[in-house]
User: What shape does this take?
Amino acid sequence: MENRYVTFDPRSKLVTVLFASVLLISRANPSMEFVFIVFITFLLSISGSFKKGFIILISYVFLNFLTMTVFHEITGIITAIVSFVLVVYKSLLPPIAAGIFATQHTSVGEWVSAMKKWHIPNFLVIPFIVICRFFPTLRSDVKSIRQAMKFRGIDLSVSEVIRHPIQAMEYFLVPILKQVEYTAQELSAAALVRGLGFEGKHTSVIPIKLKIQDYLLLASLLVLLLVEGGGVF
Amino acid sequence: MKKLKVQDLISIGIYATVYFFTVFIATMLMRFTVPVFHSLLVPSMSALISGTLYIIVANKVPKFGAITLVGSVMAVFFFAFGYFPLAFLPSFLFPLLADFVQTKTKISDSLKLMVSYTIFSFGLTGPILPLWFMKDAYSESLLNKGKDMSYVNSVFEGVSTASFFVSMLLVIITSIIGLKIGKIIYTKHFAK
Assistant: This one.
């Protein structure tokens, strides 16, 4: 698969997510947070989602701006709450950015072969594949159920849900759960045909290998970690 | 211990997707009806609507591991989308505990289901717990700005501690109601 964007290994993406979480727990200083956001923006741009990276950067700057200027002076309970929410969102932004970076342009197959490489047991890999594959099916199921409900004159608007909550729930959830049972049976049959129940070693067509950009990414994360650690002491 | 077969794993994956979906519905319902603090009510709302699903999972795959895996889908989601690490721990630990209660203990069936479902519902409290834990980070930043500690406490005391207990108690109440509703729907449509 020829691609003009830089691609990263799923494993180094996961390390990036972990790093963002560590950054959040250790309550890194604001400049480090900013550096990381810029770093993620850069990563997103070179891997082909420039717009998303840009939005993240802008919203980080905007949140920071709000905290610094408008809600700098805390005068009452309202400003306190708003400023608290701002702080929470701002510190949650780096891990969210890392999560977007990790899930962009990574196919299910790549994740699966990375998981296999890590010897993650079947009872975790199989539900994971099923969830990823089943989600679009569920979405189209929900769409057709809603259409059928509209056809019968049952609206699923907010006001209707508040007026008849149990009815809305029943009419909506029961068809989904019924449909799901059939899908489970079909998928089990398909999986058995494809040899998913096979006990021995499985092979994969997707090569999982750390490339030069992965090493660069990991190295720069290590440098950031060292700088952060150095700042603490 | 009966081992989970491939078919069971596939059913678990599918039910986990549906569970994820019900949590999504709960979040959306809260977002459009309750202002500002909607996230505090998400665990109780989803406890209210996922009772049927829980009964189905407990009946269809009565083996240890099913409930844990279904609950852990939220853990994976919280992890992958970079919430707090604390956020993914409860959504793994509480379902695990619920799983133990459901498959290993020997109390009467209906009581067992109720207790394990209540524990299970607490799994979603992960993302909102930081609202109380990250209070420290917030007050730290306030202190750095030159506010004194008593001011910080006065701002947050009433909001935080009370809302914590209210939302936790609400989870217990709604999960009991949710299971009752779930049972009605289950016996009407699914019990054979």
